[in-house]
């Protein structure tokens, strides 16, 4: 690994080939690119399944694609042809690192490629550990989260909107590459790494005790709506119809909430009648409905501005609910150094996030995402040393675009 004088680009000098679609591996590649690696995303001519994925601009350009492929270079190749496969193999061997979720292709398998470059780092994301297919929403359905999400009275599953397992899997993939690079630097050896999406979800569910609770206590987690499991947390609505999320993790938080809402005496009387100690987080959780009935009138009697001012002066954890449009216009985006104005070809100017890590006080800034095949000729010339004539022949033959 080549050291970089720019502390925000510690992976400068690292080359990575990405063959991917959708969320997990594109996120991994973008994360590695934001850390300074040179990431080449290789797609089939015409684009992979996510090249036109929603949301799109009015002209049909994928905003999604621009969001997850910032800072990469794009090569388009006919990966169904022998010539196209051979060309992409050469790119991977030159780079020494492949990340992909296109599993089961012998021509870019670890066995095939490591025979060409023994110190290859090969990271492959699978759907399931048995080699079966799976995406975030199907994996999530089989673990339990949709059956504890939503209102307490709801009986059917409620899917989440955030593809949590894809995001987690993408970050695990980036971590796998970084640790494999360290291993290769120390030993000279490559690594074959597989990351099943389902295993990422299962590990998270186990680490957060959702599965362990069922194993140890022989119970299923209950559906509790917008409450917070094991703590006191609840949503409230102001007199002018604005919703807030309020959380009390400590006795101090809880005392501040009772003082703010003028319910200190009522809460003490409730505790006495129930034989409960509300200094205990479990007791606050068990009696959350009774507590909420005491707190709700105060919120209903005050405007959002009044609630915001009052909560801001207390230790209570809180936030008002916002739409994406409201969040995008808020100063947490507009005045946040994480976001800088990006001139994205085919889309326009907008505030885009860079890497959400401040390295020595600086956030690595975002770079535009490519259009399909933007860098095909450039990469073939720089990486493989092909001449303009050779590249023209490949283009004329339909091997690259």
TrEMBL record:
One of its GO terms (molecular function) is transferase activity. Transmembrane segments: none annotated. InterPro entries: CoA-transferase_III (IPR050509), CoA-Trfase_fam_III (IPR003673), CoA-Trfase_III_dom3_sf (IPR044855), CoA-Trfase_III_dom_1_sf (IPR023606). Keywords: Transferase. The keyword Lipid biosynthesis does not apply. SUPFAM superfamilies: CoA-transferase family III (CaiB/BaiF). The keyword Transferase applies. This is CoA-transferase III family protein.
